[in-house]
What we know:
This protein is α+β, with helices and mostly antiparallel strands. It has helices at residues 2-7, 16-35, 49-65, 80-83, 86-95, 100-110, 139-157, 178-196, and strands spanning 69-76, 117-118, 121-122, 161-166, 169-176.
Amino acid sequence: xxxxxxxxxxxxxxxxxxxxxxxxxxxxxxxxxxxxxxxxxxxxxxxxxxxxxxxxxxxxxxxxxxxxxxxxxxxxxxxxxxxxxxxxxxxxxxxxxxxxxxxxxxxxxxxxxxxxxxxxxxxxxxxxxxxxxxxxxxxxxxxxxxxxxxxxxxxxxxxxxxxxxxxxxxxxxxxxxxxxxxxxxxxxxxxxxxxxx
Length: 197
């Protein structure tokens, strides 16, 4: 039970007024999402992780039919929301043209005073500027804002790689000769870890 509590990610319950505001702003965020679509973002509207699995299985089959190799590694971005610094979200969000006033308000909602409750116990208020609040309507967007630039740069450095991002899980997938796969995948993984840490 202790290990499960340590691994559990806190989910934020925002005040009603923030929930209403988020609902009103959803169309504006949806319009922004359409401007930053990425092939590797499998959490986007109309896409699913199952579809990503089938796509990569097909790529693997095609590689095998050509006599090539393929390999993939899943990078579980542990505590991605809790470690997502709001300052980085702000800077990357501006570069991705997220509406600045809306971005400011989203980040302010993440910075609200919080109390933690567990088993009937309640803490005193906690303030933080270093965490994306999982549970907010735009939390996955905030995480995507930070990860998109890193994923884009990895694809520039490894143009033959395929990425599959689903919120806070990232699969790195490489096909080619056995020698290429044996060197490219570890290099891509090292690059990924360096960028995301």
